[in-house]
Design brief:
Layout lengths: L1 H15 L4 H25 L1 H6 L6 H4 L4 H20 L3 H19 L9 H16 L9 H19 L3 H7 L4 H5 L1 H21 L7 H19 L9 H20 L7
Helix pairs in contact: 1-2, 1-13, 2-5, 2-6, 5-6, 6-7, 7-8, 8-11, 8-13, 11-12, 11-13, 12-13
Length: 264
């Protein structure tokens, strides 16, 4: 689900910045290849922990898929990501390769450290730059867009850790969410997602539109619901789904921003 969500966000941003059909398809394909490599790399590295935790939703953990096949698929997707990224332009391509490198650094090392949030902030923060630099004429994203994307990515890190946080702690995976605990991670995920929506609503020049105000109200309600949820509802995937809804509202706000997404 995270890989699909990031690819969908990239597609919405590509449409918002005005990428043509060929450039847009190439850029989204690069993002999809990068996300597949990241996801398969993560599953391969977590195979033993997932098996010990009894994860029935992980084919590697259940033995349905061979480890060598996943390793090969991750490497193939990574190799495909490089030319697809560079086909969007040299500068844009290297920016996206930087995004993917940050995510692989998370998988291999940083997910076990208090800096586990950093690759998410870097990768999401650079994603708009990849798409605006791939456009013609190429432009850089405004600072508010980079900040909003970085906030959203950091929020996604805390939300994505929630369903497995207890198993991760037991297995010795001590990123920042695991060190802070479930309740603090929910609060940070919701607050950061709402902050991202606020930046997107208020960042573009001109007054906030009616649709922007309505979506901001929806995101505030979702944020408060996540913060006020009783303990029984904070387990499982519900907090992640709430943050995903916040991210969806964020994406709608980005599309509404349209012409303001690029600085020439």
């Amino acid at each position: 689900m995270p890989a699909a969500a990031v690819t969908l966000l990239a597609a919405l941003l590509a449409a918002a910045v005005g990428l043509g059909p060929v450039a847009g398809i190439t850029a989204v394909a690069a993002v999809a290849a990068g996300q597949l490599s990241i996801g398969w790399c993560n599953d391969r590295l977590d195979m033993r922990r997932d098996a010990a935790a009894g994860r029935r939703d992980k084919p590697l953990a259940t033995g349905e898929v061979r480890p060598g096949a996943v390793t090969a698929a991750a490497c193939a997707a990574l190799l495909a990501c490089v030319p697809l990224s560079l086909a969007c332009g040299a500068l844009a391509g290297w920016v996206h390769i930087g995004c993917v490198t940050a995510a692989w650094a998370y998988n291999v090392w940083l997910k076990h450290t208090p800096a586990s949030w950093l690759p998410y902030a870097v990768a999401f923060g650079l994603l708009p730059g990849f798409l605006t630099l791939a456009s013609l004429p190429a432009g850089r994203p405004p600072m508010w867009l980079t900040a909003a994307a970085a906030l959203l990515g950091t929020s996604a890190h805390f939300a994505n850790a929630l369903p497995d946080i207890d198993e991760d702690i037991a297995a010795g995976v001590l990123g920042l969410p695991q060190r802070l605990g479930r309740r603090a991670s929910i609060a940070l995920a919701a607050t950061l997602a709402f902050a991202s929506c606020t930046v997107v609503a208020l960042g573009p020049p001109g007054p906030v539109t009616l649709a922007g105000r309505l979506l901001l109200g929806v995101t505030l309600a979702l944020c408060l619901a996540a913060l006020a949820a009783p303990p029984v509802l904070t387990r499982g995937r519900m907090p992640f789904l709430v943050i995903l809804a916040l991210a969806g509202a964020d994406a709608v706000l980005l599309v509404l921003a349209g012409h303001a997404l690029t600085v020439s």
